[in-house]
Structures are given as structure tokens and as C-alpha cells.
Amino acid sequence: MRIVNPLRSFADKAMTTPLWLRFKILTWIFRYKVKLVGTCKIDIKETDLKSVTFFVKNRRKVQNHIGSVHAAAMALIAESATGFVVGVNLPGDKLPLIKSMNLRYVKRAYGDMQATATLTDEQIRTLQSEPKGDFLVDVKVTDASGDEPVIAEMHWAWVSKDKK
Question: What is the tens place of the pLDDT at every residue in 116-143?
Fold first, then answer.
């Protein structure tokens, strides 16, 4: 028997709201649940629950010493985007865990940043059918010019939740 995922239930309800409200609701709940995302004011720009785009504005609180989005904020949007798509596609009795992050900063970032993460249909089937496992989640992090200043590799795992 499949256990309902509360995050997925909430996201499904949010997806039925008008477009102008949909991503505000999803952003609000994600910021509430993941406090650092709220502190950095990261937004969900779009999602179909199979892919998602997270956005961070290049503002003073997330900048580094040269005025671009800090490397840690870039890692945060990549980890958050991949975690979101994994989290909404897992059954409720499973726990998503980041296993590793590999980030290669290849050029200077300019302006606002966004991360788009996507799961394949096969990955979604695996998440829903296997009791535990792991895989790389595809994510692309781009700056305002459309360049990819960081190459991110996010390795996610899932396990059964402990029974209390």
C-alpha cells in the first residue's frame, strides 16, 4: 500500500490554483519548511512537479565580495531544486537524503541566478517502486546572461522512514 506524501498532496492542490498564485504558494511553503531558502528569499518560478526552476535575485544579502551571487547560494538553489523534485515524487514512507554535491565553478556569475532540475520518467518510477536507492538528478544553474557559471552534480538517495 502506497503512503501519501504530504508535500505532494500540498503541491497537487497548489497546482490547481490560478497561475499567478500557484508559484507564490509553493514558494511560501518551501521557504517555511527550508529556513535557509526563506532567509535567501529563493523563489520557485515554475514547476510541473517533474521539473522545477528555482530563482535567487542578486541582492546584497546573497552576494560575495565581488558583487555576484555567492557560491554557497548557487549550491543552495541547485540542492533545493533537485530536492524539491525528488521530494514531491517520493512516496510518503520514504525520506530523501542528499548523498553528495559536486560543484565546479567554471566562470564568474553575472546578475540573478536560477537552477532548473528535472527527473526522467524512469527516475520517477524508480523513486516510487524501490524501497531505497540513489541516483544523480539533472540540474542546470544559469546566470542572467544565460551562461552556466557552475556545473552542479547532485546525488540524491532515499530510504524508508523509521517507524516510531
Answer: 999 999 999 999 999 999 999 999 999 9
**Torsion sign over Cα 92, 94, 95, 100:** negative
Cell digits for 157?
Answer: 538517495
Q: How far is CA 37 from the centre of its chain?
A: 10
Which has the closest alpha carbon to 82: 123, 119, 31, 110? Answer: 119
Task: Report which residue type is found at 124.
Answer: I
- Separation between Cα atoms, residue 149 and residue 141, nearest integer Å: 7
**From CA 108, how far away is CA 54, in angstroms rounded?**
19
**What's this model's pTM, rounded to 2 decimal places?**
0.94
Residue 45 and residue 55 in contact, taking contact as beta carbons nearer than 8 Å: yes
Beta bridge partners of 100: 155
List Cβ neighbours of 66 (8 Å cut-off, separation of 6 or more): 108
Collect all residues with Cβ–Cβ distance below 8 Å to 12 and sequence separation of at least 6: 49
Q: Phi and psi (nearest 5°) for 116?
A: -115, 120
Q: Which helix (H) or strand (E) holds 47?
A: strand 43-47
- The answer to whether the beta carbons of residues 104 and 151 sit under 8 Å apart is yes
